[in-house]
Specification:
The structure holds 2 protein chains of 2 kinds. By secondary structure, chain A is mainly alpha-helical. Chain A is built from 3 helices and no strands. Classes of the chains: A mainly alpha, B mainly alpha. At the A-B interface, helix 1, helix 2 and helix 3 of A face helix 1, helix 2, helix 3, helix 4 and helix 5 of B.
C-alpha cells in the first residue's frame, strides 16, 4: 500500500480518538487534550503530504507544521488559563456544571 | 513499514488508554507517550527539525502546563479522579467518532494518490532558518506577536484578583 495512504489512515484514527475524547469526557482539561490531539493529527497530515507527495522541492510542509505547533502552544496556554479561571468561580472543572451563562 | 506500524501502535494505544483513565494525572502522562509517538513519526518521515520542535513544545512544555493545571484545580488528592463517563454520553461520542473515522477512511481509501517519491526531500536546518527569515519573515513576526499576546492574556485570565472578595 502507498505509504501516504497509511499515514493518512493513522492520522484519521488519531483524529477520531481525539474527537471521541472531546465529546465523551466532561472534564475540561481532558476535552482540551482531545482538541490538542486533533491538532496533532492535522500536523501528521502536513508532514505526510510533504514527505510522500509528488512535489518535494521546498520545505512548505515543515514550515506549516512549525507555525501550527506555535499556535497550538498558545492555544493550550490560553485554554488552561481559562480552566483555572473556571475553577476559581465554580470550584470544580466539570463542563456540565459550567452553565452560569445559560439563558 | 514495520517502524511505522510500531509507532502507530504506540501512538494509538496510548491515546486510547489516556482518555479511558479516570485519574487525570495518568491521562496526562499517557498523552506524553502519544506526543512522543508523534515526534517519532516525524523522525520516521525525515522531518527531524519538526520532531525536535514537537518534543520541546509538547513533551516539554504543554505536558508541564497540563500537569500544573491538573494540580492547581483540585482540592484534595482524590479530586484528580474524574467522574465516570455516563453510558449515553460515551455511546454517543463513540458513535460520532466511529462515523468520522469511517468517513475519513473511506475517503482516503478511495482517493487515487500520486505515487510516493522515492527519495526523501532533504531540508537542512540552514535552509529552514533561511526560509523562516526570508520568505516567511512576516509570518514569523506575526506568530511571535500572537504568542506574546496569548501568553499575556493567559496570565491576565488566570491571575487571582486580590480585591475581588473583601468578605
Amino acid at each position: 500500500m502507498n505509504p501516504l495512504t497509511l499515514c493518512l489512515l493513522l492520522s484519521s484514527a488519531l483524529f477520531a480518538i481525539g474527537l471521541t475524547a472531546a465529546l465523551a469526557r466532561t472534564n475540561t482539561i481532558l476535552v482540551l487534550l482531545g482538541i490538542e490531539l486533533m491538532l496533532n493529527a492535522a500536523n501528521l497530515n502536513f508532514i505526510a503530504f510533504w514527505r510522500f507527495g509528488p512535489s518535494t522541492a521546498s520545505a512548505t510542509g515543515v514550515m506549516f507544521v512549525l507555525f501550527a505547533i506555535a499556535i497550538a502552544a498558545a492555544e493550550a496556554a490560553v485554554g488552561l488559563a481559562l480552566v483555572i479561571a473556571v475553577y476559581r468561580h465554580q470550584k470544580n472543572i466539570r463542563l456540565s456544571e459550567a452553565t452560569r451563562l445559560k439563558g | 513499514m514495520i517502524a511505522l506500524a510500531a509507532i502507530a501502535a504506540v501512538m494509538l494505544a496510548s491515546a486510547a488508554l489516556a482518555f479511558t483513565r479516570r485519574n487525570l494525572i495518568h491521562s496526562a502522562l499517557l498523552l506524553v507517550l502519544t506526543w512522543s509517538g508523534v515526534a517519532a513519526f516525524y523522525l520516521w518521515a525525515d522531518a527531524q527539525f519538526v520532531a525536535f520542535a514537537q518534543l520541546l513544545v509538547y513533551v516539554g512544555a504543554v505536558s508541564m502546563v497540563v500537569l500544573f493545571a491538573v494540580l492547581l484545580t483540585r482540592r484534595s488528592l482524590a479530586e484528580s479522579v474524574d467522574h465516570p463517563v455516563t453510558l449515553r454520553r460515551g455511546a454517543l461520542a463513540l458513535l460520532a467518532g466511529a462515523a468520522v473515522l469511517i468517513t475519513l477512511a473511506y475517503a482516503v481509501l478511495n482517493t487515487r494518490l500520486a505515487p510516493a517519491s522515492a527519495a526523501a526531500p532533504s531540508v537542512t536546518v540552514k535552509q529552514i532558518g533561511q526560509q523562516l527569515m526570508g520568505e516567511h519573515a512576516a509570518s514569523l513576526l506575526i506568530v511571535g506577536v500572537v504568542l506574546t499576546v496569548a501568553l499575556i492574556g493567559a496570565a491576565v485570565i488566570a491571575v487571582t484578583d486580590e480585591t475581588e472578595d473583601p468578605s
